Amino acid sequence: MTTIPSGPRAEHSLSDLEQRLRPSERMPVLFVGHGNPMHAIRENHYTHTWTAEGQRLPEPQAIVVVSAHWLTPGRTHVTDAPRNRVIYDFGGFPEELSRVQYDTVGDHEVARVLAHRLAEYEAALDSQWGLDHGTWSVLKYLAPAPQVPVLQISIDDTLPLPRLHELYGRLRRLRDQGVLFIGSGNIVHALGRARWEPEAPAWDWAEQFDADTAAALTERRLDQLLDPYGTWREARIAVPTDEHYRPMVAALSLLHPEEEVRFFNASIDMGSIGMRSFVTV
User: Fold this and answer.
1) Structure confidence at residue 12 (pLDDT)
2) Sign of dihedral through CA atoms 234, 235, 240, 244?
3) Is the overall model pTM greater than 0.85, yes or no?
């Protein structure tokens, strides 16, 4: 792992690097509820919607994903490998799922730009990680054959949510340089209370938390969204651990104050996994 230096020389270097990313129309931001890894080999309402949303996206210069499945306590990492390996970070699923391929390249210069923007948080380049299932299971529908680099940024799960929001917000201007950002997690994620029978109904608390956070997102009530446990009594059940909630905070941090979001896949899967997703409009 390589830590990016700071100081006047680093700022000059950053200016040179950012020439790699040309000015562009403002790229959208997405948050995608990725849910069950099996969606990667299924054809259903969720995957059809991911495909349709992907077809609406403008052509970016790079795709950057913040996935719930890359946690780096105390640090923030940025992928930095010429080609991205596919990580099968799950167990107990059919072998077919572990044969899914998603062929993509990285980009050292783009990785350095991202890390420079996060230098205050001592962001490090990481050539060991690849694309975990929080990334490839949705990108295979959103961007089935990307012609641009794909990178991941990790989540420091020791940071309070307001600090995490500030961290990713430092990347916002890169949306005007062709970078498409995607957060991949689940707002409601109580796997221990999942209902495994087909077409299982949602728990009342899951529906309530989903509705409350959707209203807060629409009205941009940051104080509530960055303090879910202090705001909504259902949060402790709906978000027993917040690693899947944090990618939503990352996506939220990349929005400009005047931007609105449009929801898609706004339902609860398996009784307790919120698939609600959003994209800027």
Assistant:
1) 47
2) positive
3) yes
